[in-house]
Amino acid sequence: MIRHSAAELAAALEAGETTSVALTRACLDRIAEVDGSVHAFLHVDAEGALAQAEASDARRAAGETRGPLDGIPVAVKDVLATEGLPTTCGSRILEGWVPPYDATVVTRLREAGLPILGKTNMDEFAMGSSTEHSAYGPTRNPWDLDRIPGGSGGGSAAAVAAFEAPLAVGTDTGGSIRQPGAVTGTVGVKPTYGGVSRYGLVALANSLDQAGPVTRTVLDSALLHEVIGGHDPRDSTSIDQPLPALVEAARAGASGDLTGLRVGVVTELGGEGYQPGVLARFTEALDLLVEAGAEVVEVSCPTFVHALATYYLILPAEASSNLAKFDAMRYGLRTWPEGVESPSAEEVMRATRDAGFGDEVKRRIILGTYALSSGYYDAYYGQAQKVRTLISRDFAAAFEKADVLVSPTAPTTAFRLGEKLDDPIAMYLNDLATIPANLAGVPGISVPSGLADEDGLPAGFQVLAPALADDRLYRVGAALETLLAKKWGGPLLDRAHALAEEAAR
Amino acid sequence: MTETLLSFEESLERFDPAMGLEVHVELNTNSKMFCGCPTEFGAEPNTQVCPTCLGLPGAMPVVNRTGVESAIRIGLALNCRIAEWCRFARKNYFYPDMPKNFQTSQYDEPIAFEGFMDVDVDGETFRVEIERAHMEEDTGKSLHVGGATGRIHGADHSLVDYNRAGIPLIEIVTKPILGAREKAPQIAKAYVAQLRELIVALGVSDARMDQGSIRADVNLSLSPKGDGGLGTRTETKNVNSLRSVERAVRYEMQRHAAILAGGGSILQETRHWHEDTGITTSGREKSDAEDYRYFPEPDLVPVAPSREWVEELRGTLPENPTVKRARLQAEWGYSDLEMRDTVGAGALALVEQTIAAGASPQAARKWWLSELARRANDTETDIAALGVGPADVAAVQALVDAGTINDKLARQVFEGLYAGEGSPEEIVAARGLAIVSDDGALGAAVDSAIAANPDVADKIRDGKVAAAGALIGAVMKEMRGQADAGRVRELILEKLTPAG
């Protein structure tokens, strides 16, 4: 049962073949079975999830089901505030903090009747591409437990890939949904900036962050996206427009017909620095799109080569200010400075921030503080904002020539735990292809494209669409998924054996 | 602790003052600037808070439209230009009463800029140029417990109340005020007084200086006389009464002058104003290098007031204060001096409201400028914060007009009002202040006064009517001032003169 997609499970619930309680219990059992190895979860709320499942079953019995996903369990990245459930953002500084309120995304999950299984692991404050920067230990990739599950949302991706949850919510600031999707063989969507409320999402970089679905199928992402998306008056940057018809687009795309679609291959997002096996799967997928009737054009976005540098000025600048609130005065960790008789508030702040933040967080706070300092602002933060505008213009020009843009999601497959931990630049480079979309606010999806020949690990195919045209992601993603499944004779995840071997050991 | 001061006159002989005034106006919106929390003053600590104004992880701000509206109206009333597009910015610094450790404010894109206000001092008009008026949020309030001074030094621990965090503020900043010379202290006071009046007329704030809903910071520097440059400034914080604005300017002028005349140099710093002793003391050193790392607030979209909206708001502005003063002076029949005193006492709006409540212009002026201004001065309280309002004053005057009390008794009614003994009517009743005009009671008192003063009575019988004053005085004394003096005179003359 746990291997079914959310759409299939919804049909089974509808047909009375199973119950939400049975489904939720199955997920909890699976978590108990494999999460010791995977460590996708930081907190599991068995009691709460089962209570919500019971309520869902009662609604169904009374004919008051709230929507297609009522009763389907979901996992939530630990960066989203959940009333009554710990929310740590993978940081020591928030250890034990239980928010008194729900993020809007969480409110919408609850209102739509999805039992919340628990909170998933992540790089501390979403800073990282491997989930190794979690203060609570790394998450492991279900395909190979010695490898990273991507990051920062490695927990959500691994939970879905390991069949611990049919659905999860992630957040994507520079690729934190899409890159984990690519390296775990799952689907991840970063919606248009402003398409999903950020209220209750503990900000990494406010102008880049966006929550989105993490699932095993494109249709499941569309279903979940429709639950969590749409205008929220509590988020001023939320777009006051109805979402496009996403589920409809996914269903239409599943026919495998892309006649008339113009697909732009971005010159700057490929080639050097990309693993051959990743590029091979990308090219094959592209050929399938052509077979489905799409026209491929090559587009150049010259400013994309500056995207990484731009990103690593804007993100730390915003983050350095966002993280200032963690000062031991109101919530979270409070550390007394050693050897100080009667410390001042400032001394307690300093000691707490020293003890509570990990190295990567400190690194980015220092970078951001520097970038915003007077005398440097124009050269760094100011300049980065200008380049950001140019990147948006490159996107606009590219979308004149193509309906969607495509690239490999990440330049490599999952690397080994610890491999890049001491080399932040190498770690940052993993987000090369995903970052431009965040800078421009456009939506993107990562769909599994197959396994790289050299290591047998999953690679991802990224589709980007213009702002507000999230439906195109689902149409193209679903078409590719259908064509690839036909070629493979089943979903890619059927070929993940690590967990089975682990269980057998 | 006492600093050497040069006399005010001598400081002017040697130096020119330059002033800058920063006034924070706390708006009276029903909810905070970026969340829906109530803004009521004096609630139990930390009861008017939510995830947003507590800066809880994940919470986000939403701009209060009424706050923006008030900012635009203040800007327009100060003859400012209104930005077509502006943003909020984060001012980053750590302080325990600031929940996010940044203040959401505005930096280089204020909502209103380049305005002016014409200030009247001694019948002359002085133009104060306004640099900007911008929107921001207030911080929480720290209470330092265990120290002698209530300041953080020496305190045993501190408590923080976040009720005030997020309350909308408008900060109004003047350009450097030059050429004010000996009138600098008066201009500073008159500017704040007139600004306060304007805020009252706009109805955008409670405008209570004593409760901190208007707070003034006084920047002051001196330069050698005739030099034309700007010296090093100090910033005296939270000068919270009109009177203190004047005193703080005067004090800092004299203090700077003494230091500079002695060959010293001014340390750029914030100064604390001490209301009780009338001096400033050193606060924290503040250099221009203090780096707030301002950047545009990414959680808020730009504020772009449409020109239609701005013009609509312009239509809601109260009358221009200068024009209004001229009109009121004509309507009330005040002399220039009477008008100037009224404005100078910060009582114009109070007098206007008192007249609106039924008192005559002269009566309203009389009470505010004699009784209440004196009281404000004696108790070092803002005249608007005495606990006696225009309605009370009008009610007292109505009692005088009705003959229930006279002016002398009215002063006792005011004593009762200061003491919170109830409404003027209640005080008259409780204190037994009503004038007696009943012939029975008065007649008896008159008879005993005649009996006690036979020689005076004889004089009156002889036609020396002017001597009646002595008998009236005796009657008033016996009746503790509560006799109707006119009727007493009539009774005396009835009893002692043949024709009756």
Automatic annotation (TrEMBL), chain A:
Descriptive protein name: Glutamyl-tRNA(Gln) amidotransferase subunit A
Enzyme class: ligase
Swiss-Prot/TrEMBL catalytic activity: L-glutamyl-tRNA(Gln) + L-glutamine + ATP + H2O = L-glutaminyl-tRNA(Gln) + L-glutamate + ADP + phosphate + H(+)
Keyword vocabulary terms for this entry: ATP-binding, Ligase, Nucleotide-binding, Protein biosynthesis
Pfam families: Amidase
Statement: the UniProt record of this protein carries the keyword Ligase: yes
Family matches, as HAMAP family: GatA
One GO term of the biological process aspect: translation
InterPro entries reported in the protein's UniProt record: Amidase, Amidase_CS, Amidase_dom, AS_sf, GatA
Transmembrane portions of the chain: none
Quaternary structure (record): Heterotrimer of A, B and C subunits.
Catalytic residues (positions): 77 (charge relay system), 152 (charge relay system), 176 (acyl-ester intermediate)
Record domain Amidase: where: 23-473
SUPFAM superfamilies: Amidase signature (AS) enzymes
GO cellular component: glutamyl-tRNA(Gln) amidotransferase complex
Protein family membership: Belongs to the amidase family. GatA subfamily.
Designated gene of the protein: gatA
A single GO molecular function term of this UniProt record: ATP binding
Biological role: Allows the formation of correctly charged Gln-tRNA(Gln) through the transamidation of misacylated Glu-tRNA(Gln) in organisms which lack glutaminyl-tRNA synthetase. The reaction takes place in the presence of glutamine and ATP through an activated gamma-phospho-Glu-tRNA(Gln).
EC number(s) per entry: 6.3.5.7
Automatic annotation (TrEMBL), chain B:
Swiss-Prot/TrEMBL keywords: ATP-binding, Ligase, Nucleotide-binding, Protein biosynthesis
One of the GO BP terms on file: translation
Molecular function via GO: ATP binding; glutaminyl-tRNA synthase (glutamine-hydrolyzing) activity
Record-linked PROSITE patterns: GATB
Residues annotated as domain Asn/Gln amidotransferase: 349-496
Stored SUPFAM superfamilies: GatB/YqeY motif, Glutamine synthetase/guanido kinase
Catalytic activity: L-aspartyl-tRNA(Asn) + L-glutamine + ATP + H2O = L-asparaginyl-tRNA(Asn) + L-glutamate + ADP + phosphate + 2 H(+); L-glutamyl-tRNA(Gln) + L-glutamine + ATP + H2O = L-glutaminyl-tRNA(Gln) + L-glutamate + ADP + phosphate + H(+)
UniProt xrefs under InterPro entries: Asn/Gln-tRNA_amidoTrfase_suB/E (IPR017959), Asn/Gln-tRNA_Trfase_suB/E_cat (IPR006075), Asn/Gln_amidotransferase (IPR018027), Asn/Gln_tRNA_amidoTrase-B-like (IPR003789), GatB (IPR004413), GatB_Yqey_C_2 (IPR023168), Gln-tRNA_amidoTrfase_suB_CS (IPR017958), Gln_synth/guanido_kin_cat_dom (IPR014746)
Purpose: Allows the formation of correctly charged Asn-tRNA(Asn) or Gln-tRNA(Gln) through the transamidation of misacylated Asp-tRNA(Asn) or Glu-tRNA(Gln) in organisms which lack either or both of asparaginyl-tRNA or glutaminyl-tRNA synthetases. The reaction takes place in the presence of glutamine and ATP through an activated phospho-Asp-tRNA(Asn) or phospho-Glu-tRNA(Gln).
Assembly and oligomerization: Heterotrimer of A, B and C subunits.
Name of the featured protein: Aspartyl/glutamyl-tRNA(Asn/Gln) amidotransferase subunit B
Record gene name: gatB
